[in-house]
Amino acid sequence: MRETTALETLVPGPLSLAGHRLGTPQSAGALTMVPISGPAYPGIVPPRTGLKLSRVVGYGQVELRNGAPEGVAIVPLHIGYVQDAAQNHALCRSAFLAAGQSLLFDDACCVQESQGGYLTERDQWFFVLPAELRDRALELRGVQGYSKLWRDIADLNARYGLPRRGHLEQILSRKRPVLTQFQSRLELLPGQLGALFFVGGRFAGLEIAPDPRYFAEMWTALVCFAYGVAAWHAEPDAAAGPAEPYEADSLPELRAALDLDRAERLAAIAGWLADVPTGPVEAVEEERYLSLRLSTLTGPHLAGQVVSDGDRAVYASLFARTPAVAAAR
């Protein structure tokens, strides 16, 4: 699992992930994470310690600030903020913020249909929109209207057996104790700056950060919310009971059984990688900051945004598109 071939096929066009390597896969229930290591890109402000939500001007209008004394902030794609007794919002796009700069996103989406109050800096925590909502949210970038995602959120809640309301809080907050188990069951490795995510054996997303610190600060938001929501819904039926024990009468036999199980698991995941749909992807440049370029990638099976410096991929957040949604475009 150390070849770059699979990564190169997922990041299309002239973008390069030279030097990036896949590590040993980890699984927790229906969620499989394949860690990615590689060269760090200096000068990027991490999202939790450097990037702050300074205020919500009105519904659908969110202002973020890069509070770091130096370095540019890459706003994570589909980041959202939660606080008790306040109106929760998520962004539909990424962006650049220079050191000390504030930026008003007037195309943010409210993800809580009927809760009063505006979000402030105090006691906030952030998430990334669940994978099931990301295709629609990306499509709505640049579109003003705070309630534009409510119908999709209500449909998602209904599919998960929850009340049909435009309240993402029904999943993010009320199911948070369950979702945060993925954070402890999967291990963030030293030097890790990205990951491939699979849900139920199917490709769900590719996340690449500029450096390990940036990715570490995104870890909970990605594992628990962006991909953990779908994995929680796809968890194996508990009624099936525990897995069968290994047939071994001695320690050497047990080790051999474990090695065989691990080899079969790696072969299966290699098959998942080979089965990831590929095809033409359209790249549209959205924004520039010095030598950095922010682009939106859209294809029949894949969508998201990337930041590049020349042909080097600095940041990537790419997710699988649902066949029904992709076919309707």
From TrEMBL:
It comes from Actinomadura yumaensis. Residues 21-319 form the ARG and Rhodanese-Phosphatase-superfamily-associated domain. The lineage of its organism: Bacteria, Bacillati, Actinomycetota, Actinomycetes, Streptosporangiales. It comes from the Bacteria. This is ARPP-1 family domain-containing protein. It holds the Pfam family ARPP-1.
